[in-house]
Write a structure and sequence with these properties.
mainly alpha, globular, 8 helices, 177 residues
Length: 177
Amino acid sequence: MTDSSSPLNEQNWTFALQIYAKPGVTDACLRLQAEAGVDVMMLLTAVFAAVRCGILLSPSDIKDMDDTCRSWREQIVLPLRALRVTLKSRPSPPSIPATEKLRTQIKASELFAERLQNDVLAAWLQQKAPTSRAVTDYQLRRLLRSIVVAASNGRDYGQVADTWSAVECIVEAATGM
């Protein structure tokens, strides 16, 4: 894939872990993922680009970013996530201690796959010129909403609009970083 030791890869990954750990952000990201189909790594990379690099991605940038990582997400990340979730619901045969161990290993593999996706996204981001201008809360909010709309693939707008509180949580967390 890419060299995960590049400074931008490390900065993007560290930022993603830090913001994800802020109060409410994990739930907000998972809600956007479940209800609007948002790729959380893409979302967090876009927030990193705006907050730390002054790069405000356009709708065409978001499409390009999605094109860059879609096959990895669809062929690797999503199948791992689906398998982990299936194991969490304890399918037949009845759960045994080894089942939880397997689920934990798959969860670690899913996180590693997301880390590799982060590297791909950071390499893509390196092609964008950083600026010294600060991105406003309003601009960040519009960016995140455009990501949600792009990811929603024709879902009912009312359902997508119900996720705006999750966007607000992420904007608040990001502006405090």
